[in-house]
């Protein structure tokens, strides 16, 4: 070790916070071949009008199924299943064969299957049923306009712009179409609302708020069903399994990536110590909660990098009147939209005029109460004792040397004059002190640790 080193003597150390092959059997004249090709092309051409009409028909079919069909007198029946109220579909569509036949009026077969799955339609006692719920839409598909987008392999893409009821608002949907032999054009995927690549202020706040809710949901283990909450002992700690909707890696990732990028979701799982045990995900059994009201946050744009937009969000906490500033980073994910790309972290760019180290030395010999208030409440550092025998003190330099998610480390250089009988850790002349500073509120920071850096 070098003869010149640094030694930290901590005073008041406190705990740290928070592709049609050619066939010879299919020889035709060039003229006949041209006629055949033209006929096929005409047959397979999908006009804008046809695209709109198919979308209108899909909307009608979807609404029909969503309300259970057309019930005859005395046919509407409900039952309880998995703590939810289900209703049987009406007799015209209450078997898988009947429902698929109905859906395939507008959908390709595979998407009809997916439609049934997406709606949570189940078979119960030989008949199809769905969760009892109302349905409806303000979208006026009959007034939609269509614009061709592209063709990929056997699929045509159109963008349909749909008015919203009697407002000036319109929504864009990307609709995919495929030609089914002998049947004609069908929709190959449910119309999907096109997400704008513009990140609005409203989206910034809403995405952060939904992200925060998702984090609390996972920290609570999810939504447990009856007798589902189970714990076990592992490596000296009590763990609990996540609820059935989150207890596999695929389910948890699918849930988290609604609001964050895949890499961030992976890191979140790692940071929270979520493990797989006996084929199911589990986490340490602990309570979680927060008073942070992200939905009420005010925002400030910070910067735009190649793939990332960064914002500062000032978040209030309940009825405490307290606020805290966070840096939130967003990335656009293809076919998904904007997602949070890094866990929000506290803004630790501390302005000089509110840096508690500066305030400490400006008031050390002037106002002990103000100086003491620059430390965390549970700090054992005593300003009154520290300043005994110090006649003059001036901070000549303050340098940030490191930072973590919740604190910043500084080295302060001070010039000191002490009395002859001074019995403290400082010397007359130049001294260096080490500090850690943590945020405690909106534009408010406190000193957690202080130590003397001795040169020898």
UniProtKB/TrEMBL annotation:
Pfam families recorded: Endopep_inhib
Alphabetized InterPro entries for the sequence: Endopep_inhib, TA_system-associated_sf
Signal peptide residue numbers: 1-26
Assigned keywords, A-Z: Signal
Protein name per Swiss-Prot or TrEMBL: Uncharacterized protein
Organism field: Psychrobacillus vulpis
Upper classification of the organism: Bacteria, Bacillati, Bacillota, Bacilli, Bacillales
